Amino acid sequence: MLKEPRTAKSFRDAGERIVRQESAIPESISRLLGAPASTARAITTHGDTWDVRLAALATLAQYDALTFVGADPGGAYNLDTDPNAELGIQSAIDEVGRSAGTVQLRASVQLADGRIASNVVVTSLAPAGASAGALLAFRVGRAFSAVDAYAAVAVAEIVSLELARYLSDEREATERRQALALYEVARQALFCEDLDETLQSIAMVLASTLEHDAVHIWIRRPDGSLRRHAAYPLDPLSSPIIWESDHSAITGAIRDRRLVRMSEPTDWTPSNTRQFLVAPLRGDPRPAGVLVLAREAPYQLDDIEMADVLGTFIGRVVASSAKSTPISLRGRSGARSASDVEREEEPAERN
User: Fold this and answer.
1) Are residues 260 and 278 in contact, defined by beta-carbon separation less than 8 angstroms?
2) Torsion region of 134: left, alpha or beta (phi above 0 gives left; psi -120 to 50 gives alpha)
3) Whole-angstrom Cα distance, residue 234 to residue 55?
4) How many CB atoms lie within 10 A of CB 9?
5) What is the arithmetic mean of pLDDT over 232-259?
6) I need a surface site. Which of 35, 274, 277, 321 has the fewest CB within 10 A?
7) Closest listed residue to residue 234, CA positions, set 260, 180, 196
8) What is this structure's pTM?
9) Cis peptide, bond prior to residue 285, ω within 30 of zero
């Protein structure tokens, strides 16, 4: 049996349904907006979370764009250009950095939605851990008032609190990675039976745990040269032997017993990175060699301190193996001595 087609509902029916829905709400409550139609945002990085935070703050404070500078990790809403490119904005940032106040200026800044912001308010961020910076709010065609200045200070306080929480989380994550790396390095040294295998395992642990793009361990030989005993990744070299006196970074690390930073690759460092740490493998009386760490991202103070500690620890592993005695504070070692390894090799001819 065929059903008769249903008649279209009239606008009056729709109105009656709306009235019935509104009447079900208590008198003390009124509906301002309908259910929001928004898609779920994928949050995969810290940058994504900052985009959401800044978008919400900009909406509440009625800003057309919002960003902060001078503090990690950085973030921006509706801004795809560098605000520091404007000379006036840079001067305002310097001013609030000195006075910890709030300033307003006129500028021409391209926004991500295609509009041009002509008014900018800059206020300082309260120190958040080791970082401090400035908050920049932008408007199109509307100036900021004294009330907006107070609102900007409140927004800056919220951003400062979020920055403090972010830096605390980052610090805890860094400490966990470093503790795990030290544990794994100690475990490899504890069960050391072959020096080269142990050093290679340590290099792989440091690369994977501490996010280095490359790790090299060079051991000093009696004739003044150094041999590469471990590397990650296992890239071929024209010669696994280098001379200490030919490279100022190695000379500084071994003779001065200090960590050296470099920003340019050489013939004995990975060519695809530009940030290097050369840490001495401290021994007695001289360092046993150098630990070379490399990556593309800049190294921070925590990375430098950790590299210095690792250099000292690996130096003790090499010295203990060379003496064929138990590794100090870590257990036993049945590894071949470094001198035995050197005697197995042909003497390197210096160019």
Assistant:
1) yes
2) beta
3) 45
4) 9
5) 81
6) 35
7) 196
8) 0.59
9) yes
As given in the structure block, the two tokens for residue 171 are 């610090």
Secondary-structure breakdown of the chain: helix, strand, coil percentages, each rounded to the nearest 5: 40, 20, 40
pLDDT level of residue 277 (50, 70, 90 thresholds): very high
Phi-psi region of 289 (alpha: psi -120 to 50; beta: other; left: phi over 0): left
Each residue's pLDDT tens digit, 29-71 = 555 555 544 545 555 555 567 888 899 999 999 999 999 887 6
Spatial CA neighbour of 57 closest among 123, 127, 129:
123
C-alpha 306/C-alpha 314 separation (Å) is: 12
* Half-sphere exposure of residue 123: CA atoms within 13 angstroms, side-chain side: 22
Average pLDDT over residues 155-174: 85
Token pair recorded at residue 316 = 């003790």
Which distant-in-sequence residues (6+ apart) come within 8 Å of 239 by Cβ? Answer: 348
Who's near 71: CB < 8 A, 6+ residues apart? 125, 128, 131, 132, 133, 163
Read off the tokens for 92: 């305002």
Distance, in Å, from the CA atom of 204 to the CA atom of 196, rounded to the nearest integer, reads 12
Residues ≥6 apart with Cβ < 8 Å to 348 = 221, 223, 225, 239, 241
Kind plus residue range of the DSSP H or E element containing 201:
helix 195-209
